[in-house]
Amino acid sequence: MTAVQAPARRRLCRWPDEGRLAGVAAGIAEHVRVNVRLVRAIFIVLSFAGGLGLALYGAYWIVLPTRESVHPPRLPRWLEYALAGVVGLVVIVAVGWWLPLGGLFVPTMLACLGGALIWRQATDTERMRLLRLSRNSFGADYADRTGRLRLAAGAILVIAGAALVLRRADFTALRDGAVAMVVTVAGLALLTGPWWMRLVAQLGAERTERIRSQERADIAAHLHDSVLQTLALIQRNAGSPREVSRLARGQERELRTLLYGERRREGQLADELRVIAADVEDDYAIEVEAVVVGDAALDEALAALAAAAREALVNAAKHSGVETVSLYAEVEPHEVSVFVKDRGVGFDIDAVADDRQGVRGSIVGRIERHGGQVTVRSSPGEGTEIQMRMAR
Amino acid sequence: MTEGSEQAARRSARVFLVDDHAMFRAGVKAELGDRVDVVGEAGTPAEAVGAIRELRPDVVLLDVHMPDGGGLAVIEGVGNDLPDTRFLALSVSDAAEDVIALIRAGARGYVTKTISADDLADAVLRVADGDVVFSPRLAGFVLDAFREAPLAPSTPDDGGPELDQLTPREREVLRLLARGYAYKEIAAELFISIKTVETHASNVLRKLQLSSRHQLTRWAADRRML
User: Fold this and answer.
1) How many CB contacts within 8 angstroms connect chain A with chain B?
2) Phi and psi dihedrals of A85, rounded to 5?
């Protein structure tokens, strides 16, 4: 599905409601903006030139789509086709019989017309494809050998055939055979070509529609799975503001990812920290204001730094007593620093027993094992900030 | 920015709300309560421009994303006609380029919609007094945008070629803002006055607005591609 729409193209079509017979003349007149009578006159005059007018009319009748009309067609579809086929065949045979050079002129004319009509009927994409196909055989690049191979094989066959035929050199028989073949091929192309083209076009349209409805189903599924579920949960937890804001926050994050599609870069520090912040938001019903400047690939030391940051966030969520925690990380050429700050109750650092696992083991120990430093700043009532630095 | 009591002493500000969601406008109005004087509101940029010209509010609280051009259309629509009206962007949007575009158009700050009522009132009063408001996220954006530029010499900035660079002090202030520090806490941390912190912050905002550095554009474009 592309968003770019080609400008509406005026299409040649039959106007069965306007015309006398099948609306071919009316359609052409409308398309080229001339009087219908003039078009009719041309058809009639051409009919005297070896029945060409009749053949043309028949051909147009077959291949032109009708303009979308409110009235149903006057004849059943298959009958129209059969009639047109019969008329076409009769005309071709008659002309080939009566005119001295008609046997060559008419089929060639019809073949050209058929090709032109197919081209005319084709949609833009089909045209592009046809153009590309014809180009591929000649101007194919080195990688596309099949095009050249096909071309070479075709040429060899044609030359061999011609050589064989010329050695026998019964030119009258040859000409008759060739004419008959050309007539048949042209007739087949005229009769079935447009039908095939239309079939292809229909298949394309169907596929587009299927993709579109698939997309719609995906979005509906997503909305159902996440948004509707969350709304239901929010209604059930209406009594607990903390739970409601936790649910809303999680959902907001998810929708934002869906809508603005910030691509995740896994294995990078920034992504890891955002995931950690989201997890802590979900698990502890607080808000983590995460700001990350710069980025770096996650190695063992940075993974330890991220894990320590999670511990610091969890500590703040559990003990600070406030609902917002700031997380700031900056990647500099020689150092990565992470700060976790809250404005909560704070604590007296000297009064905390050494065996308190939280800060000692999981933050300080972790960072120092990888050559980093931790500074904890806190005092009762002033909040807490844990500063972690890791050399790169 | 919770030291609201300090700000509450200042005069009340006349505020105009622009947001395409009536429910959100009602919420903000209720939250701001009597701390500021909400003189009007609008749901579309066109409506807003007319009303702002007529009412001449001190502060316009502006949604970034709206139909028909968003907050940018409002700032550009009002133009330079009302020098005493200041714009503060208020948004759920995370897209850096949208925020930077609004700041470059003349907004005096950016806060997210999840901001608490106290902090929002404080930010409004601050902007009304001519200061600028950096949320941690905006500070992060600016640090990111100027990250590759060398630091400017720390001599007082006279609007010369250093427009494209931050001084070490400015970067220090921005870092503390991104870490969640309030102006008062930054002043204590760096042993400078709150007034000086405010000066640094407005200088940074001015650089952001005036810098013609192509890096800023490239940076925003890169962000979009991530």
Assistant:
1) 45
2) -60, -45
Mean residue pLDDT across chain B = 81
Are residues B180 and A326, on separate chains, in Cβ contact within 8 Å? yes
A-chain CB neighbours of B226 within 8 Å are: 262-263, 265
Quickly count: other Cβ atoms within 10 Å of residue A364's Cβ: 20
Residue that the structure tokens 């005229």 belong to = A190
CA distance A1 to chain B (A): 22
Answer whether residue B1 shows pLDDT above 60. no
Q: What is the pLDDT of residues A209-265, one digit of tens each?
A: 888 888 887 777 777 777 887 888 888 888 888 888 888 888 887 777 776 655 566
pTM of the model: 0.59
What would the pLDDT profile of B5-36 be if each residue is shown by its tens digit? 444 445 678 999 998 888 888 888 888 877 88
Task: Flag whether residue A343 sits within 8 Å of chain B, measured between CB atoms.
Answer: yes
User: B118 in contact with A at a CB cutoff of 8 Å?
Assistant: no
Q: What region does A379 belong to: left with phi over 0, alpha with psi -120 to 50, or beta? A: beta
Interface confidence, given as ipTM, is 0.80
Contact B140 A328 (CB under 8 A): yes
Asked if A256 reaches chain B (Cβ–Cβ under 8 Å), the answer is: yes
Element (H, E) at B14: strand B14-18
Residue of A267, A304, A320, A271 whose CA lies nearest to A388? A304
Amino acid in the structure at residue A51: G
Contacts of A322 (CB under 8 A, 6+ apart): A286, A342, A343, A344, A383
Chain A contact set for B174 (CB, 8 A): none
CA distance B60 to chain A (A): 25
| Residue ranges of domains in chain B, CATH in brackets | 4-131 (3.40.50.2300), 141-225 (1.10.10.10)
Domains in chain A: ranges and CATH: 24-121+170-211 (no CATH), 265-391 (3.30.565.10)
Instruction: Please state the length of chain A.
Output: 392
Res A99: pLDDT: 62
Candidates B110, B179, B223, partner chain A, best to mutate (most A CBs within 10 A): B179
B92 with A341: Cβ contact below 8 A: no
Residues of chain A found within 8 Å of residue B2, distances taken between Cβ atoms = 343
